[in-house]
Amino acid sequence: MKYFDLSGETALVTGASRGIGAAIAASLCAAGAQVIGTATTAEGAGRISDSLAGKGRGALVDVSSAASVEALFTDLSAREELPSIVVNNAGITRDGLLIRMKDSDWDEVVATDLTSVFRVSRASLRHMMKQRKGRIITITSVVGAMGNAGQTNYAAAKAGVIGFTKSLAREVGSRGITVNAVAPGFIDTDMTRALDDSQRETLQQGIALGRLGSSEDIAAAVLYLASSAGSYVTGQTLHVNGGLWMP
Ligand code: NAP
């Protein structure tokens, strides 16, 4: 059996313009899937189309907007590109201690990191249920499991994703659809480049493998769950954190 062959599958990856999402889109594409990667700008979508080089394309969506998600799926349906693999990757942080946190910091993070997962997953399900197969994979975070001062909004959204994943896995398992989450630790992307050298050093000391992860480390876990190698895994959160936190 060829485990990592995704020929004939269509994958939707949100937030594929950079960082972890770009690596996920590249790895699913290399495994043979047709990939639609999303960005929030036309320039980002263009870059995705260029990097997928004819085996996929970029598309525009703001996952925090119900209308935008609906428009994306209307377009995918019209092009006969409804996905059999969905990777909910788009996410943001708006860090700050709770005592000073603005309502907008809370609302934007919950809308982008949690409500979007509900909307995109719901929009994907009808097609997957008809096909009696599908993979829904959401990128959560180690912070959703272990907590982190200054990230109550992000931790709440990412922990919410884990409960959502378990519940949806129970709803759709009988239809041949698996639903899982991948929880990265600290990964070297735009999101973590804001850390200064001393913060980085302190962080690295707490990681058993002694380094920040790469986007490719996360893409490999997603590829496993998306492929036939992961077909008996559902409702799980796969922690990919170099030993920073162990459940
Ligand atoms: P990143 O480099 O900041 O990239 C974020 C991606 O999300 C970009 O493609 C961005 O699109 C997209 N995005 C942001 N807001 C969006 C919206 N409203 N609608 C649609 N797309 C939106 O982030 P990353 O580090 O790769 O993180 C990817 C995922 O992994 C996130 O869910 C994050 O929470 C999670 N994660 C990251 C780490 C880490 O250490 N980096 C750790 C744990 C979990 P544009 O380019 O168009 O803005």
CATH topology: Rossmann fold
Q: Number of DSSP strands?
A: 7
What small molecules does this complex bind? NADP nicotinamide-adenine-dinucleotide phosphate
| Number of helices in the DSSP assignment | 8
Helix/strand layout:
Layout: E1 10-13, H1 19-30, E2 34-39, H2 42-52, E3 56-60, H3 66-78, E4 85-88, H4 103-131, E5 134-139, H5 142-146, H6 152-172, E6 177-184, H7 197-205, H8 215-226, E7 237-240
Plain-language structure description:
The model has no long low-confidence stretch (mean pLDDT 96). Strands 3-2-1-4-5-6-7 form a seven-stranded parallel beta sheet, sandwiched between helices. The chain has helices spanning 19-30, 42-52, 66-78, 103-131, 142-146, 152-172, 197-205, 215-226; strands spanning 10-13, 34-39, 56-60, 85-88, 134-139, 177-184, 237-240. It has 247 residues and is an alpha/beta fold. The protein starts with 9 loop residues before the first strand and ends in a 7-residue tail after the last strand. It has one domain: NAD(P)-binding Rossmann-like Domain (Rossmann fold, 3-Layer(aba) Sandwich). The protein binds NADP nicotinamide-adenine-dinucleotide phosphate. Residues 14-15, 17-21, 38-41, 44, 61-64, 89-92, 112, 139, 141, 184, 186-187, 189-192 line the site of NADP nicotinamide-adenine-dinucleotide phosphate. NADP nicotinamide-adenine-dinucleotide phosphate binds at residues 14-15, 17-21, 38-41, 44, 61-64, 89-92, 112, 139, 141, 184, 186-187, 189-192.
